Amino acid sequence: MLEMKAVEKSFPTPTGPVRVLQPTDLEVKAGDFLAITGPSGSGKTTLLMLAALLSRPSKGAVVFDGDDVSSKDEAWLCRHRKYRVGMVFQKFCLLPHRTVLENVLFRFRYLDHDPDEARTRSLEALRAMGLESKVDQPARLLSSGEMQRVAIARAVALPPRFLVADEPTGNLDRESTLRVMDCFKRLNAEGLTMLLVTHNEELLNYCSRHLVCRGGALQKSK
Question: The sheet that has 85-89: what strands, in order across it?
């Protein structure tokens, strides 16, 4: 599914480049539910951005479904992000004055999809998230937990090969957190490969594998 080979990431600063990700090897196999934990500034989100094809490594190779994506042009990356990768973030990134259904339909906005099929897929994703009664409500009227489930529905309405989630429960109360994680667990059981970045070690029980990021380097959990 996803392999990183001696991947490094550096960012320019006025005093020279700063390396935030040390040479890293990582393999995510089809069907995995991998969690990465670690303190703030340890490189977790940088790693996730590479996995989501939103960033390029400074050195090394990122291989996704057999394709070395490290040297692909932006048009190729954009196309494969659209069809292969679903993304969920701590901020829900919803359109507050649009309905729940319209927010999920936005997933299809720049894709060559039949409108009726897009609507059917969006409604199915919302039903799977337990939101079928909310489809016509403006997103701004939802609770935080409901907003995050809308974001998940949007990410999976066009079924991705791989779902990445960056602190998806960071703004949620415990009840909403458990409900979102139950959604993730169900999606994984249905065959979706997942990478979760989190500070919350209580969530590790939902995951099949766990790695720790410290100082820009990945370590096996104890």
Answer: 85-89, 162-166, 193-197, 33-37, 209-214, 217-220
- Residues 63, 68, 73, 77, Cα dihedral to 10°: -30
Fold of 2-96+161-220: Rossmann fold (3.40.50)
Cα distances (Å, whole numbers) of residue 85 to 29, 79, 117, 136, 153: 15, 10, 19, 27, 13
Confirm whether pTM is higher than 0.90.
no
* pLDDT per residue rounded down to tens, the chain (222 residues): 899 999 999 999 999 888 998 998 999 999 999 999 988 888 888 999 999 999 999 999 999 988 898 888 888 888 888 888 989 888 888 999 999 999 999 988 877 788 899 999 999 999 988 899 999 999 999 998 899 889 989 988 888 889 999 988 888 888 888 888 888 898 899 999 999 999 888 899 999 999 999 888 888 865
Q: In the chain, where are the structural domains located?
A: 2-96+161-220
